[in-house]
Design brief:
With 346 residues, the chain is mostly helical. It is built from 16 helices and 2 strands. It starts with a helix and ends in a 6-residue tail after the last helix.
Amino acid sequence: MGHALFVTLEDIMSRYHRMKGRPTLWLPGTDHAWTAGQDLNLSTERLSANKALTNKLWNAGKFILQNLPRQENVSDWETMLDYKFDTEESLLKLPLLECWVVSKLHILIDVVMESYDKFFCGDVGREIYDFLWSDFADWYIEASKACLYHSGDKTVALVAQAVLLYVFENILKLLHQFMPFVTVALWQALPKRTTALIVSSQPHTYLLRHANSIKRFENLQALVSSRCCLLLNNSQAEYSVEPAKHISASIVGSKEVIQYISKEKDVMALLSRLDPLNIHFTDSPPGDTTQSVNLVATHLNSPRFIEKALEDIVCGVQEKAAEAEEKINLTKNHLAFLKSTVLVSK
C-alpha cells in the first residue's frame, strides 16, 4: 500500500512538472513503457510522438461519434448491436475491408495479452501504436468513408459503423493502462455504455481471424500505396494533369485477383484519387503503344510530303513525332517496370 501511494505521488509530481515545461526523469504510461528495464532521461521527441498518437486517437473518436446513428434511431442501433464478430460465420459474411480490420484486431489482442503476461510493456505500446496509427486510422477509417458516404446502401453503412465501434471499443480497452484519462473520456462519450471502462471486461483472446482476407487487403494496399501509385502521380506531373483531378486507370491482374479487387473499386478510387467511372480491370496488358504515332510516322516517311510541305509544317510534324516517341518510350518504361514488379499476388 505504501509503495502504491509513493508511486501515485511520484506520478502526480511528474505530471505537474511536465505541465510546467520542466524536464522530468520518470513518467508513467507510454513514456516509460517503451523502455522497459532501462533508465533513460525524458525524451521530448517521444513526448511529441505520444502527443501525436493521443491526437490521432481523439480525432478517430470524433470521426466515429459523428458517423454513428442517432441515439433515437432505435432500429439502426439494434441492427448494429446484433452484429457479432467472434464466430467464423459472422466473420466470413463481412466485406473484405471489414473482415481485414477485424482479423487484424484479433491478432493484435492476442499479441498484446501475451506481452502483458510476459511483462513486455514496451512491446504492448508499440503494437497498439502501429495498429492504431496505420491499420485503423490511416487505412480503415479512410477507406470506410467509401462505405459511409458513397455506397448508397444503408446496410453497407451499418456494417461499417458496427465495425468502427467494435474496433474502437477494443482499442480503448487496450490503451486504458497507458492513457487512462483520454480513454475514459472517449469511452463515456460513446453511446450505449452500460459499464465504466475501468471495470469493463478485457478483450477476449483467441478470436477468429481470416488469413485470406488479410492477404487480399494487403494486395489492395500494395496497389494503392506502392510504386504503381507513384507511377500514376508521376504521370500526372509529366502530362500536366491537375493534382485535384481524378484520373482514369487500368488495373491488370489475374482473373482471381481481379474478381475481388474489382469489388473494392470505390475504396481504390477514394484512396488513389481515381475516377470511379473510368477504372478498368483486365487480365491482359494494353496493346501496341506505337499505334498512337502511326499517322505521324507515315507522313514523315513519305518523300512527297517532305518535298511539297512548307518547312514550318515539316518542323511542326517532326516535333510532334519526337514528342510522341518520347511519350511512347516513357509508357514502355512504365509497362516494363510494372511487368517486372509483382504488385498483386494470388
